[in-house]
Amino acid sequence: MSTGNKKGPADIRGNTLRVYVYLLRSGTSELREVQRALGFSTPSLASYHLGRLVEAGYATQDEHGRYLVVQGATNVLLDGYTKLGGLVVPQLLFLAILFSVVVGFFAYMSLIYTAYVPLLVAASAGMVLAFWYETVRVWRRLASWK
To answer: Which domain holds residue 135?
Structure first.
């Protein structure tokens, strides 16, 4: 296979990306497993998407005909996500949680020291809204791959 035929991360989307995420979560899988798990109408449809992943170098097929994710491809295809065991979560989730805790703490402290409440509330609310908006947006994109 020549490098000119290789597909980039932008070419891997839609059902092909759903197949990649399924392989990432489930590990080694056979063609029929992928078809059933993702609700494809025929094995040839699953084979097409698996073939695209193999052609692009993001998956490989072992000697028993099972498909598995190529190590290192996750960083390229799932930019902005982190794999935690079997879960794939947006990286912004961690910042959203952190800033939610910080705002909760400042909200509690503002009950005691009221002098800086308006500025603190405005800055904190802006941070929390921005991070949660981005986290939900990215998470919805991941949910559409299922």
So the answer is: 81-143
Q: Which of 43, 45, 41, 49 is nearest to 18 (CA)?
A: 49
| Cβ–Cβ under 8 Å, residues 5 and 57 | no
Is the pLDDT assigned to residue 64 strictly greater than 80?
Answer: yes
Task: Check which CATH number belongs to the domain holding 15 and give it.
Answer: 1.10.10.10
Residues 13, 50, single domain; the answer is yes
User: Are residues 64 and 97 both part of a single domain?
Assistant: no
Residues 63 and 106 reside in one and the same domain:
no
Using an 8 Å Cβ cutoff, are 69 and 28 in contact?
no
Predicted local confidence at residue 8, as pLDDT: 54
Print the SS3 string covering the chain.
CCCCCCCCHHHCCHHHHHHHHHHHHHCCECHHHHHHHHCCCCHHHHHHHHHHHHHHCCEEECCCCCEEECCCHHHHHCCCEEEECCEEEECHHHHHHHHHHHHHHHHHHHCCCCCCHHHHHHHHHHHHHHHHHHHHHHHHHHHCCC
List the single range of 4-8, 68-72, 119-123 with lowest mean pLDDT: 4-8
In a shared domain, residues 70 and 87: no
